[in-house]
Specification:
By secondary structure, the protein is an alpha/beta fold. It folds into two domains: about 180 residues, Leucine Dehydrogenase, chain A, domain 1 (Rossmann fold, 3-Layer(aba) Sandwich); about 150 residues, NAD(P)-binding Rossmann-like Domain (Rossmann fold), CATH 3.40.50. Helices cover about 45% and strands about 15% of the residues. It has 15 helices and twelve strands. The strands form two sheets. The protein has a seven-stranded mixed β-sheet. The longest helix has 26 residues. The two termini are about 25 Å apart. The model has no long low-confidence stretch (mean pLDDT about 95). Belongs to the Glu/Leu/Phe/Val dehydrogenases family. It comes from Haloferula sargassicola. Pfam families: ELFV_dehydrog (PF00208), ELFV_dehydrog_N (PF02812). This is Glutamate dehydrogenase.
C-alpha cells in the first residue's frame, strides 16, 4: 500500500513535504511513521442504476488520516480523476490544516470517480445516497464529518444528511457541513474559503507595504473559491485583471467587471467569450505582472517550468497543492515572492465548517457577521504564529506552517502513546 500511494504524484508531493518537516523537527522513527501514514483507507463500490435503465459501478474512496485530535474533517469530491492516492494526499494536508488552525479535527478526504457534468440530478442523488449508506459504519459526528468539494455542493450534503438521519431515526445535521441554511447550515460557509484567501493576501500586502487600494490580482479558477476570492479582493479595492477557468482565461488591464463576468458565466458556463475582456492563454496568465496571484482551482499548476517567470509579489494558494516542490525551491531561492501556503491560505473553509459543526452540536446559530469576524480572528492568529515561527527559525513560510502543524499532531500522539 505504501508503494501504491507513493506512485501517485500528489501523495508523493505531500510525503516529500512531510519528510522535510519531519527532518527539521527531528521526529524519531516511531512518530515519523505514525504521523505520515493514514489511519484508514476505505474504498467502496457504488452501484447505481442510470436513467436509461443501465447499471454502472463507481468506486468511492475515503481516507481518514488521523483521529488523534478528534473526528476527521474534509471534503467529498466528484471527479473522473479521483483516485486513492490523490484523496490520501488531500487528507494529509487537511490534517495539517486543522492542526495549524487549532481545530479539534484530524484530516479526511473522499471522492467518487464520476463526472457530475454528465449525470442527471436523479443519478447524482442515487450515487450520493448509496455512497453514504456504504460509509455509515465509518462516519458520524464524532468520527468523520464530510463537506462539499469539487463537483459537490449544498444539495449533495442535503442528500447525505437525509440518508444518514433516516438510518439513525432522527435528524443528525452535524454529520456533514456545508449544508443549506434551512438544514442548519452556517451563514458565511459558502464564501469562507475565498474570503480567507483574500483576507490573508491583504495581510501579506500589508506586511510588504503595498497599499491594498493600489494592488492588482490574477485569480486562477472561478468556482466557489476563485469567485469569492476575486469578489472579496475587489471589495478591498484590488483591481482583478485576469481570471481563468477550465475552458480558458480572460484579461482586462483596467480590471474585470466581476458582476457582469458572473452573469456571463451563469449564462454560458465559462469565462470564455466575455465581451468586456480579451482572451489570454491560461498558462501565460499565471506569469503576468500582478501583486497577488491566487491559484484557486487545480493542484500542481505552479511548477519548475513557470516558477522562474512568476511576476507576483504574493502567491496566495487557494487550491490544495498548487505549487510543486521544484517550484517551491525556485521561489525560495528567488526570495521575492511572499508565499501563503495552502495549509494556511485556504483554511477558511474548514474553519467555518468547524463553526457549523459546533452550532449543530449546540443547536444554536450565529449571524454571518459573527462567523466572518471569528474566521478573520482565527486566520490572523494563525498567520501571526506562522510568521513568527518562520522568522525565529529562518524558515520558508510553507515549512514553518507545516512544522507547526506536524508538531501539534506529533505532540498529541506522543502524549497519548501507542496502544496496546
Amino acid at each position: 500500500m505504501r508503494t501504491e500511494l507513493l506512485h501517485n504524484s500528489m501523495f508523493a508531493m505531500a510525503a516529500t513535504q512531510f519528510d522535510g518537516v519531519a527532518d527539521f523537527l527531528e521526529l524519531n522513527d516511531e512518530l515519523r511513521e505514525r504521523c505520515k501514514w493514514p489511519k484508514r483507507l476505505i474504498t467502496v463500490t457504488v452501484p447505481v442504476r442510470h436513467d436509461d435503465g443501465s447499471t454502472r459501478v463507481y468506486f468511492g474512496h475515503r481516507v481518514q488520516h488521523h483521529l488523534t485530535r478528534g473526528p476527521v474533517k474534509g471534503g467529498l469530491r466528484y471527479s473522473p480523476d479521483v483516485d486513492l492516492g490523490e484523496v490520501a494526499a488531500l487528507a494529509m494536508w487537511m490534517n495539517w490544516k486543522c492542526a495549524l488552525m487549532n481545530l479539534p479535527f484530524g484530516g479526511g478526504k473522499g471522492g467518487i470517480n464520476c463526472d457530475p457534468r454528465t449525470l442527471s440530478q436523479g443519478e447524482l442523488e442515487r450515487i450520493t445516497r448509496r455512497f453514504t449508506m456504504e460509509m455509515i459504519p465509518f462516519i458520524g459526528e464524532d468520527i468523520d464529518v464530510m463537506a462539499p468539494d469539487m463537483g459537490t455542493n449544498e444539495q449533495t450534503m442535503s442528500w447525505m444528511v437525509d440518508t444518514y438521519s433516516t438510518h439513525q431515526g432522527h435528524l443528525v445535521p452535524g454529520i456533514v457541513t456545508g449544508k443549506p441554511l434551512c438544514l442548519q447550515g452556517s451563514a458565511g460557509r459558502t464564501r469562507a474559503t475565498g474570503h480567507g484567501v483574500a483576507f490573508l493576501a491583504s495581510r501579506a500586502l500589508d506586511k510588504l507595504g503595498v497599499p491594498i487600494g493600489e494592488a492588482t490580482a490574477v485569480v486562477q479558477g472561478f468556482g466557489n473559491v476563485g469567485s469569492h476570492t476575486a469578489f472579496t479582493l475587489a471589495s478591498y479595492g484590488v483591481k482583478v485583471r485576469g481570471i481563468s477557468d477550465i475552458s480558458g482565461a480572460v484579461w482586462n488591464d483596467d480590471g474585470l467587471n466581476l458582476p457582469k463576468l458572473s452573469n456571463h458565466v451563469r449564462a454560458t458556463g465559462s469565462v470564455v467569450g466575455f465581451s468586456e475582456a480579451d482572451a489570454i492563454d491560461p498558462a501565460e496568465m499565471l506569469c503576468q505582472e500582478c501583486d497577488i496571484l491566487a491559484p484557486a482551482a487545480a493542484g500542481m499548476v505552479i511548477t519548475g517550468d513557470n516558477a522562474p517567470r512568476l511576476r507576483c509579489k504574493v502567491l496566495a494558494e487557494g487550491a490544495n497543492g498548487p505549487t510543486t516542490p521544484e517550484a517551491d525551491a525556485i521561489l525560495n531561492e528567488r526570495g521575492d515572492v511572499f508565499i501563503i501556503p495552502d495549509v494556511l491560505c485556504n483554511a477558511g473553509g474548514v474553519t467555518v465548517s468547524y463553526f457549523e459543526w459546533v452550532q449543530n452540536l449546540q443547536r444554536y446559530s450565529w449571524t454571518e457577521r459573527e462567523v466572518i469576524t471569528r474566521l478573520e480572528t482565527q486566520l490572523e492568529a494563525a498567520f501571526t504564529r506562522v510568521l513568527q515561527f518562520a522568522d525565529r527559525f529562518k524558515l520558508p513560510i510553507r515549512t514553518a506552517a507545516q512544522a507547526l502543524a506536524v508538531k501539534t499532531v506529533s505532540d498529541v500522539k506522543a502524549q497519548r502513546g501507542l496502544f496496546p
